[in-house]
Amino acid sequence: xxxxxxFRMLKANIVILLLGVLLGAAAGYxxxxxxxxxxxxxxxxxxxxxDSAGGSVLxxxxxxxxxxxxxxxxxxxxxxxxxISQMNDGNAPAGSLSAEVATGSNLIVVSASSSDPEAAAxxxxxxxxxxxxxxxxxxxxxxxxxxxxxxxxxxxxxxxSPNIPLNVAYGAAIGLALALAVAFLRRLFDVNIxxxxxxxxxxxxxxxxxxxxxxxxxxxxxxxxxxxxxxxEAVRQLRTNLKFVSVDNPPKTISITxxxxxxxxxxxxxxxxxxxxxxxDRVILVDADLRRPRQASLFNxxxxxxxxxxxxxxxxxDDAIQEVGPYGLLILPAGRTPPNPSELLGSERMRLLLExxxxxxxxxxxxxxxxxxxxxxxxxxxxxGTVLVVRHGKTRRxxxxxxxxxxxxxxxxxxxxxxxxxPAKGVGSSYYGGGYGASDQSxxxxxxxPRGSRGSNKRSGRRARKTxxxxx
Length: 472
Hints:
Layout: H1 3-12, H2 14-34, E1 39-49, H3 62-71, H4 78-87, E2 96-101, E3 107-114, H5 117-139, E4 145-151, H6 164-189, H7 196-203, E5 207-212, H8 229-243, E6 253-258, H9 265-278, E7 283-287, H10 295-298, H11 307-311, H12 317-320, E8 322-324, E9 329-332, H13 341-345, H14 348-358, E10 362-366, H15 375-380, E11 385-391, H16 397-409, E12 414-422, H17 440-447, E13 462-463
Helix pairs in contact: 2-6, 4-5, 7-16, 8-9
């Protein structure tokens, strides 16, 4: 994973990360509220050494510093505890004591902690005085070293523990770490295809296009101009990429399939066929999904007579083909479902039909999905190339890999992959598939067409004017 992939993953999981931080901070705050409040107060004293004449105080001498460090264990000694009790008439304040010497000095700092702020201040003061009394008693009256109180403790106004800001910060950090772990595990164990890289690696072919999730794709029968700007531009990009997939030997017969049902292959091929026809190409769309045909309903044409009847020799090809829209798109519906779809699609008659159609038109074949039936693998041997449609967030990587291997077993040519239903906006749109987060208005300056340039693509269902001649 590159740095760019890492930041894209962060963006894609921003909700989980924010939720983790908020929950962690809330847990830290709740933990702080459950802890008892502790108040800390400090008092300070100096260890001083008289000079040989008994006059001036050499407070910074090394002897004073050594004595200050030597007196630290006295703070929790029994002698000091008894002295504290005596100084408080046998009722010593409850709490804990600690002491330290300031670095490079002879300053002793006594800290007292208690649940009562007044008791903490009283304990700190009496502890320093008690320590000084015990230390001076140990040194004796003739000693040049003595402990003197410097600063009395004051009553604390705020508890020293729990440290609410610190606990909240720790909780937020732990929540963020857990959320990052969840994001990594989601990415690691996610079996569905969510990026163009996933689709390209699983299919073993390049990306021809990424189509956004857009409701206007249901209007492909109305023409590509009726799509939303981002959708129409994505279809045009797919059309351009497909034209340049093999410049020296451009494919004339192209089947479009998917690994599983419900990945949007029929919608993709209908939009592509309309875009090719709009660019001036002579295109015929053949609905070869004889088990679950979709093109007749998408273009709102009669579909009871079509490919099945032509292959069975019941009708002539010119009688089964229909012309729709203002661009002269030709459609050969699937017809009735035959009892032997695989045999029909893999027959020599089907190969000859596609060969005849390719002499006059670019032939796009809506093929059945690869994994449920063998129709697509049989059909792929009769076409110049196959395009795999992969649905974002739904298609499994292993399913695409199996479909790729099945097509490779019959020496099919996979022209590329189309990633379908990419998120058009929202968190993760730029990571999951290529980014369609721009608004329709941002495309408006590039998408506006001269007045009268768009035809009204009525779903006519007119018969083709003998454009394609069927040769037996």
